[in-house]
Amino acid sequence: MALIISIITLIAVFLSILFFPEIKIGKVKLGSYWVISLIGAILVLIVKWDFKTLIEGLTADSSVNPLKILILFFSMTLLSVFLDEMGFFEHLASMALKRANSSQTRLFFAIYAVVSLLTVFTSNDIVILTFTPFICFFCKRASINPLPYLIGEFVAANTWSMLLIIGNPTNVYLAESFNISFIEYFKVMALPTVVGGLVSLLVVYLLFRKSLKKEMKIEAFIIPVKNKSLVISGIIHLGLCTMLLVVSSYIGIEMWLLSLFFAVSLILFTICYLLVHKTGLKTVLKTLKRLPFELIPFLLSMFTLVLFLGEETTVKIADLIDIGNPTFAYGITSFLSSNLMNNIPMSVLFSKILASSSLGANLMSGVYASIVGSNIGAYLTPVGALAGIMWMSILKKEKINLSFMRFIEYGAIISILVLTATLLTLNFVI
Question: What stretches in the chain show pLDDT beneath 50?
């Protein structure tokens, strides 16, 4: 019965993302995907009536504990959102625009580079949501085609997010599930990410090279940061946090504790700074308000559904995937599964499938390949990642014409080539 409820829930989540992404209750708008997943989790709990197993899973002293993963993700997101509230990302984007002069090609490469760099040290979701309105804005001012920059931005963010554990919550979940340290992860994923990133850059450029050859006429402008002192504070906190995450396994402190410390430290420092300068606490409140709180019920609901999924079921699925080379088998199935159920529930499910597999010494190949699939799968269809859903909604508001099918046309060409190159490199490395 639990299996049937889980399947129905996943199908309902998929359909909701496509046809009714929001539920309106009066003036309140709720994301339908997390409401449906929460209902599914509650139904499974009622059927199983096993709250002890759920509590043990949520409070387990292990790296796969979803609460620890959420704290790590939200802490890193807070550091990124804070810098965005200070205008840091817009400042960098405007600098890239100024350096491009009248060349669309230079601007394309500059935007791709900035997005890639920021994604590595922050989060793909935050970068996508931050840069998209800016790209729409300057493209309208310059009367140029925004698609090369928008597609390039989206692909860059979801490719270079593979480089570090903190780049994507799916990285965190799968890596933590199998006790992969920050440095160990980086050693394996560095070369595949670089290859995937370069291939994605080349493919997107070739797709839009004719459009990018046209000159643009726009007055370059630099958007200043809102508060230099707070920006410096934010950069220091993010930089120190990232450096300590690198050595977390050596100093014996879990990543979620380190990230939580720096997030709290930044908020407390900012509150003190704002009170001393008597400027109010709007910056702190805006930062907290922008955190993706809907991810909490979504991840916990999916964790609950997978937790009560029978071991016999996951073993059967694992047996089917284990046939052939694990890098390509898990890379391709995770890539496709991300677009059937979204990459977050896919990661939760695949962590259990991998734990039930008979890969033995090849287990890590399957884990890293699943991480690759969860990231690159984000740009095959808008369903692949929550960022894709939000990205499409921003384009709709900005009146940018990009249909679901046109997204898939671009996504299929780019993602298949990038996935192939990345998995080939990963297979060589591992």
Answer: none
